[in-house]
Fold:
Amino acid sequence: MAANSEDERSAQFCPEQLWQFSLASYPAVKQLCLRWQDNYQANVNVLLALGYAEQLSWQVSQDVLINSIQQLAPLNQQLTQVIRYCRKQLHTLPLQASQQLQLKQSLLHTELVAEQCEQQLLCDALTFTQHTTADNLSLYLKLLGVPLSTTLTTDLIDLRQTFARCAISLP
Structure:
């Protein structure tokens, strides 16, 4: 195969484009992504990045994906998940409603900044090759040890269709 063939060209995300795609698509895929986060320990930012890559016909290799997930793990576990846990525990604290609301809004903002940092790390770590039948999401689920089932296959189709609609609406 020639060095300049379509399959050998490397591609990477522009962080701002991934962030805009995430902002556009997350409301529509939130429920499914959070279910996969809770049931399979999937990282929502990884799901968004891989789904966006599929819309661009970009395929990630297993080795690059594993390396990217390993690079992301400390930031996600030590910061993003801790902030999320604190935010979810606010209701258990003896605070006035106004105090809880103020803390929740501050933690939500901080969590969003942490999510954006995760995406920046993913943009730096993930490289892709052009592939007309990119299947990054199935690869990720396989790495998480999630067996494909009829329900999961239906979820994948729904997720991809939603990502496609959101990708079309971007500038």
Observations:
- Helices lie at 15-40, 44-55, 62-89, 97-125, 136-143, 150-168.
